[in-house]
C-alpha cells in the first residue's frame, strides 16, 4: 500500500482543495490529511472560519481522504512520515522547496495550485454580502 500525506487548514472547503486531495490520493492508495488545529492556525497567522472539528468532519466525508490527523506544529512532519510509514509527501506548489528535507524519508511532490479560488476570497465574499 502506497501511503500519501498532505497538510493544510482546508477552511471553507472548495474545489481547489478537493482537486488537490483528488490528485494527492491518486499518487498512492491511501491518503492521510494532517489538518491544522485552531491553535496551530494561530501560530501560522491564520484564523479559520470553521473550527478544527468542523473542518475535520468535512474532510472525512470525502472519498479521497482515508485518515485525518491533527497538525499541531511545523516540526511534526518528520515524525508523521515515520509513524505512518508515508511513501509520498505532497503539497500545492505555493510550498515548493519548503519541505525538501523530507526527501530523505519519502518522495516529495509539489502540485500546481488551482487558480482563482482561495479560502480568503470566499471569506471576503461572505463578509461583503
Ligand atoms: N490549494 C490548492 N489550490 C487552492 C488553494 C489551496 O491547491 N486554490 C492547496 C494548497 O497548496 C495546500 C492545500 O490546498 O497544499 C491546503 O491549502 P491551505 O488550507 O491554504 O493550507 P496552508 O494554509 O497552506 O497550510 O504545514 C503546511 C501548512 O499547514 C499548509
UniProtKB/TrEMBL annotation:
Q: Which GO terms describe its cellular component?
A: cytoplasm
Please indicate if the UniProt record lists Transferase as a keyword: yes
Molecular function terms in GO for this entry? glycerol-3-phosphate cytidylyltransferase activity; metal ion binding
Tell me the keywords, alphabetical order: Nucleotidyltransferase, Transferase
Highest taxon above the source species: Bacteria
What is the name of this protein? Glycerol-3-phosphate cytidylyltransferase
Give the UniProt record's GO annotations in the biological process aspect.
teichoic acid biosynthetic process
The transmembrane segments are none
> NCBIfam families in the record, alphabetically?
cyt_tran_rel, g3p_cytidyltrns
- Sorted alphabetically, which Pfam families does this protein's record hold? CTP_transf_like (PF01467)
Asked whether the keyword Nucleotidyltransferase is assigned, the reply is yes
Classification via InterPro entries: Archaeal_FAD_synthase, Cyt_trans-like, G3P_cytidylTrfase, Rossmann-like_a/b/a_fold
Q: Please report the stretch or stretches of sequence annotated as the Cytidyltransferase-like domain.
A: 5-124
Q: From which organism does this entry originate?
A: Paracoccus tibetensis
